[in-house]
Design a protein that fits this description.
The protein has a single domain, classed as NAD(P)-binding Rossmann-like Domain (Rossmann fold). The longest helix has 29 residues. The chain has eight helices and seven strands; from the N terminus they run E-H-E-H-E-H-E-H-E-H-E-H-H-H-E. By secondary structure, the chain is of the alpha/beta class. About 45% of the residues lie in helices and about 15% in strands. Bound molecules: nicotinamide-adenine-dinucleotide and S,3-hydroxybutan-2-one. Nicotinamide-adenine-dinucleotide (NAD) binds next to helix 1 and helix 6.
Length: about 260
């Protein structure tokens, strides 16, 4: 019987890379995103690769949507093994200009979404009386906070904190909870971050913020979605059964913790 994984925010970017990796290793995967048009396109592309996938539209910041997502996964595939809280958004703002709307928007998606997804997945694992794996999208920004990324960095520190708490409380059910901490991957997220950072800079040109951050990478190559998917694939496998509560860096050598 195939293992079943849900990957939130997987219509594109790192989430799509994670979904493809898990599919290539025999998982049935529920792709999910708030962007229904891109989600449907990605589902069709992955079905074209003979991957066993379905797509479920949803908003991770809505608790009911997260529980519906798990229900759709179980209705289709019979059970759940892995839940990846990948969806997240960014904001670039000088600290003195951060407004309540930004705080609320980013915490609702990057933090509340992870809490609700964890609750929905954990309740299913407990109902199944099986072990389970919950894997959360953190970041280098969950270990070190960055200028102009104050709210975003705070949300990723919160993800790391909730990962530890959930791991401690859910271990008795043989549910592990871990986080992956990517560095700088050229996805739509970094396209947006670069555009915004350039707006606040007198000398950066488009693309130069990404280059500036990436120039510090010790391994001297850009991060790819597959680099991140390799770590998530490990955390989704039995090889990581004795690891829980960890926020593991995969950044090519940027932050050393
Ligand atoms: N790209 C990087 O360098 C990087 C580094 C560290 C951590 N991360 C984290 O990895 C995750 C994926 O990042 P990415 O670079 O692929 O971003 P991305 O913006 O390319 O993709 C994120 C996806 O999430 C979806 N999404 C946004 N809000 C949603 C919501 N409320 N409900 C459901 N789906 C929603 C978007 O539609 C999009 O498809 C994020 O949590 C991000 O913080 C990214
Ligand atoms: C977007 C992200 O988490 C890091 C800062 O690249």
């Amino acid at each position: 019987m195939s293992k079943v994984a849900v990957v939130t925010g997987s219509a594109g970017g790192l989430g799509r890379g994670i979904a493809e990796k898990l599919c290539s290793n025999g998982f049935s995967v529920v792709l999910h995103d708030i962007n229904e048009e891109l989600l449907n396109k990605t589902v069709e592309e992955l079905k074209g690769k003979n991957f066993d996938v379905i797509g479920v539209k949803g908003d991770v910041s809505i608790r009911e949507d997260q529980f519906n997502l798990v229900k759709e996964a179980v209705d289709k595939f019979g059970h759940l093994d892995v839940f990846v809280n990948n969806a997240g958004i960014d904001a670039v703002t000088p600290f003195l200009l951060i407004k309540e709307d930004e705080l609320n928007r980013l915490f609702r998606i990057n933090v509340n979404g992870v809490v609700f997804g964890t609750q929905a997945a954990a309740e299913q694992f407990i109902k199944q009386k099986t072990k389970g794996k919950i894997i959360n999208a953190c970041s280098i920004a969950g270990h070190e906070s960055y200028a102009m990324l104050g709210t975003y960095s705070a949300t990723k520190h919160a993800v790391r904190s909730f990962t530890q708490t959930a791991a401690k409380e859910l271990a008795k059910h043989q549910i592990t909870v871990n986080a992956y901490c990517p560095g700088i991957a050229k996805t739509k997220m970094w396209d947006r971050i670069d555009q915004e950072m350039v707006k606040y800079s007198d000398d950066l040109k488009p693309g130069e913020a990404f280059e500036k951050f990436s120039s510090e990478i010790a391994l001297q190559r850009y991060q790819t979605p597959e680099d991140v998917a390799n770590l998530v694939d490990f955390l989704a496998s039995e090889a990581s059964d004795y690891i829980t509560g960890q926020a593991i860096l995969t950044d090519g050598g940027l932050v050393y913790r």
